[in-house]
Amino acid sequence: MRSGVVNRVLLALAGLVLFVIGGSVLAVGLGAPPPAWWPHSGPHDVLLSRAERTAWRDQDWWWPALIALLAVLLLAGLWWLMSVLRRHRLHEILVDTGDGTGALVRGGALESALADDAARRPGVTRADARLAGRRSAPTLRAGLRLEPDASPAAALADFTAHPLAAARDSAGLEALPAEVRLRAVRHKADRVS
User: Fold this and answer.
1) Is position 110 within any domain?
2) In this structure, are 65 and 103 located in the same domain?
3) Residue 145 CB neighbour total at 10 angstroms
4) Cα dist. 142→90, 112, 113, 135, 185 in Å?
5) Residue 106 domain-assigned?
6) In a domain, 43, yes or no
7) What's the structural domain count of the chain?
8) CA-CA distance, 187 to 168, in Å (whole number)?
9) Of 20, 58, 124, 133, which residue is most buried, by most CB within 10 angstroms?
C-alpha cells in the first residue's frame, strides 16, 4: 500500500516539475516574458550556448563522470520500473507437515481453491483471492461480489467460517489474516408492463 502511494507521489512530483519547465520553455518560445528564474534573456536565446556546451569537454574527468551519472540514472530507473512491475503475490506457502522439513503449496492453487469455494457460497456471485506476505505467515486479500439481495454481514460470516477456515486448516496455518472487500452486483430495474 505504501509503495503505491510513494510511486504516485513521485510520479506526480516528476510530472509537475516537467510540466512547469516544459510549459515555461513553450511560453517563452511563443513570446511570453520569461519568468524571474529564467536563465536566458529572451525567446531567441538558446538554452545552452556553444561555450556552455563545450566548457567541460577538455577535462579528463568529464566524460567518465557523465557516463557514470547516466548509467546510475538508467539503473535507478530500471530498478524502480522492476519494483513497480514486480508481482506482489505469494508464490508458495510453507506447510508444516510435522516431520521438520515441511512442504510447499503453490500460492496460486490455494488462491484458486479459496476463490472457487467462496464463489459457491450463498449470496456470492463471484470471488477472487490473493495471497501476500511471507510464505511462513501469509495474508489474504479477498474480494466478494454479492447478489443484490445478499446480506453483507451474513456473507462475511459465512466466508470466515467456511472457505477461510478451510484454507487455513488445509495449509496448517495457525492464523490467516484476511482483508475482505465486499461489493454488490448491480441489477437492472424490473420493468412493469
Assistant:
1) yes
2) no
3) 18
4) 14, 11, 12, 17, 16
5) yes
6) no
7) 2
8) 34
9) 124
Helical H runs in 39-185? Answer: 50-54, 62-85, 107-119, 152-159, 165-170
Grid coordinates of 39: 536563465
Determine the pLDDT at residue 190: 65
**Got the DSSP string for 52-94?**
HHHTTTT-TTHHHHHHHHHHHHHHHHHHHHHHHHS-----EEE
d(CA 18, CA 177): 42
pTM of the model as a whole: 0.54
Comparing 173 with 191, the larger pLDDT belongs to: 173
CATH of the domain at 115: 3.30.70.1350
Domain boundary among 85, 120, 145: 85
In angstroms, the CA 162 to CA 33 distance is: 69
* More confidently predicted of 140 and 44: 140
Does 46 fall in a domain?
Answer: no
Q: Which helix (H) or strand (E) is 146 found in, with range?
A: strand 137-146
∠ at Cα 88 (70, 110), nearest 5°? 155
Rounded to the nearest integer, the mean pLDDT of the chain is: 83
In the numeric block, which cell numbers belong to residue 47? 538554452
**What residue numbers bound the domain in which 131 lies?**
92-184
